[in-house]
Amino acid sequence: MSDSVFAIDVTGLGKDFGDKTVVDGVDLRLPKGQVWGFLGPNGSGKTTTIRMLCGLLQPTRGQGRCLGFDVLSQSREIKLRTGYMTQKFSFWDDLTIRENLQFVARLHGLKSIPSLVDTILEKLGLAHRQHQLAASLSGGWKQRLALAAVTMAKPQLLLLDEPTAGVDPQARRDFWDEIQQLTSDGMTVLLSTHYMDEAERCDQIVYLANGHLLARGSVEDIIRHTGIYTYHIQGRDLRMLAQQLRLQPEVANVSYFGSALHVSGTDQPALLQRLQGLCAQGQRIIDAPPELEDAFIALMQQAGKDQREYN
């Protein structure tokens, strides 16, 4: 096993299903103890990439190591050291929270199971619900149970596939508090998400589209990479203005931002000139820093039409 500072170090990773290429040419070097976020539209290859990294799918091509083990030939060793939380709740509805955790602990061959389960119940705030059936839990509590289950064996790497989809804001915040605690204890986390506020909590972001890795880096790096500029427009009759702006070639995106319009484009002088020409008296143009959501939309547009064949 390697003493590399990288939990994941792969190059040219790709996956075909028959004659259909789903992921192609993914390069990743993920340092230990960091949180990395996978962004990209639905069907971009995020889940397939995650499953290749944790040994659930055999890559068609590429090479590299995960947790010091070869991703092509040592998938069993990788799986034993990895926790994987799927999009769909995958534990047992007819068991209580405690029974679910006890069963998972036995599957892992863990010792001192009663005290171990007591500890994880307290740590994740599940103790007062431990005798509740999993089927009766809300989405947030199911997510917390799933996190408890996949971290019981203290994996070195935690892979999370859209872990907070459909969960309320408070539950999402609680979940992230737990993730940050896990990484402070040395665990490495890789997750896919569609929530921009979650992506902004990550150390680094990877953007996938059409099966290709298009950008990676910090939030600031990603925004800088897209070359996007934004303005807020305040005033009245904004709905009519929005319709006009969406027809302009200089405008990449128009959206409502509270009581203002949020307008973005990559050619700042041309964008500003167009806004000044279309804005009426009483409508104010305000220079605004671009956000990750602007960059996300810009990257989607730059990616263009998906060339992969699914027919």
Give a structural overview.
The chain is an alpha/beta fold. Helix content is about 35%, strand content about 25%. The chain contains eleven helices and 14 strands. A six-stranded mixed β-sheet has the order 6-7-8-3-9-10, sandwiched between helices. α6 links the parallel β7 and β8. α3 packs across α4, α3 packs parallel to α5 and α8 packs across α11. The longest helix is centred in the middle third of the chain and has 16 residues. The radius of gyration is 22 Å and the shape is globular.
General shape: globular
Order of helices and strands: EEEHEEHEHHHEHEHEEHEHEEHEH
Estimated helix fraction: 25-40%
Number of strands: 14
- Category by helix and strand content: alpha/beta
Q: Mean pLDDT, nearest integer?
A: 90
- Please tell me how large the radius of gyration is: 22 Å
Quick recap:
The protein is of the alpha/beta class and 311 residues long.
Task: Please give a handful of descriptors for the protein shown.
single chain, 311 residues, alpha/beta, 11 helices, 14 strands, 35% helix
